[in-house]
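Open question from group meeting: does this chain pack into something compact, or does most of it stay loose? Before anyone orders reagents, we agreed to write out a predicted structure and look at it together. Recording both the input and the output here so the notebook holds the full record.
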Amino acid sequence: MVIGTLAVIMDSVAMRKFTRVLILAALLVSTITCTKSTDKMTNESREEMARKEKEGFKQIAEASADAYSKMPYFPAQVSADAQFFSVQITATSSMFFTDEFDQHGLYGNGYCWAGIVEQLLEENNPALLKKVTLDPEADTCFISCPNEEVMNELAKALHESFSTKEKMLNVLKSADKSRLDC
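Structure tokens returned:
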């Protein structure tokens, strides 16, 4: 459903490029994870594997920059049908902010994003926070909304706060890290 929503938002060329980037990301993680048995790895080889993974994520983020620029609410993605409205922030978006998360010792998984969103809304728009339900998972933060108006308001608020690396860095600087599950 998310890819379908993105297809409506993005032109077909950008969508094909974005899809290729997602496939490359999956292959990168699979390749890095499967190349060596972690039981037989030395600390040096584990560090090398982590470095390669981080570098791969940076390359994917750079390759995705064009596709991200076409997403009107980046890093948030909206999804709606007749009865369900939600905003998602995925691990793919987190790749774009790898350096910013690393500077604060954070990973950027779904639980981390939920904590960041919760703190941001508590500070800037507590009424909006009361209208939504945060549902984090390992690599995605789903945020259920009661209607399309709330969904769009939330997506715009998140985009305004996280749309650039500089904005994201400012949010992470002010976040209470003890309340983040990263």
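Observations to bring back to the group:
The beta strands are 77-80, 85-90, 133-136, 140-145.
The chain is about 65% helix and 10% strand.
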